[in-house]
Specification:
With 297 residues, the chain is α/β, with parallel strands linked by helices. The chain has 2 domains: 146 residues, Rossmann fold (3-Layer(aba) Sandwich); 105 residues, Rossmann fold, CATH 3.40.50.1000. 30% of the residues lie in helices and 20% in strands. It has 10 helices and 15 strands. The protein has an 8-stranded mixed β-sheet with strand order 4-3-2-12-13-15-1-14, sandwiched between helices. It is globular, with a radius of gyration of 19 Å.
Amino acid sequence: MPNRHAATISLSGGLSDFHTDLSLIICDLWGVMHDGIRLNEGAVDAIEKARAADIRTVFLSNAPRPRTHVRALLEKMGMPRALTDYIVTSGGLARDEVRARYQGAKLYHMGPDSDHNTVESLPVTMVKTPDEADIILATDLDFFDIESHRGWLQGAATKGVPFLCANPDRVVHVGEKLYLCAGSVADLYTEMGGEVHWFGKPMASALTACLPEVGLAARDVPRERVMMIGDSLQTDMAGAYAAGYRGLFIAGGIHRAEFPALTAASDAHGQVPVERFQNIFGAGKAVPHAVMEALVW
């Protein structure tokens, strides 16, 4: 999944390197703006300065919750309210799909009760097991490990029950701890022969949904003037590639262990050959246009 535009990737010192070339920034939250516990103040400053430079910004999160929940969490962390006006979440996109296609269906919610607002008020009948369901909407895991879900989901997979994955992330850092996410169960369901519908990144539709959110029409914005910023190659950068947008990879997030090897592979001008990048991160991973350790202006 190579970078469409260059044979090398730039190690960037800050977002200001690109500000004259951008109309819209689509920015990940977890791993870029915060670590689940505290805000990245440098990233907040970068988004504020991008807006001051007349670049529109929108947060795109694989949070399996409605945007109102995410906005409240950001404000509780101390993010300025003015920056939280435009938010698109995978949970919100999954809710839209249920309303559009599955009215009256029996829905099983996979995930904790604390995620209940993702399924609240939907036009469905809630059931207590996957075997009873017409659709499964997953916001998180039901068990602590992935393999324990196999028997729990086998009947639904055999019957062809669609699995709506409202959080396509496989893992996430909370502080320094790494946790499994619903995307890992969706991978298992696919392996079992089940039908999975993904919401959020890396689906191109999740990124293109951000344009009307900020009042832009896709036909009016050249793709190269849109940048996706995120810390996941599998979701954020793959989404940028799928949509044809620029990708800025924040390497100090879930791939932080590989960042020293990346800097060692760069030349005197801060350029890393795509081949070396793929040697470090894997040939099948999306290749960004540029890399920073952490988002700063």
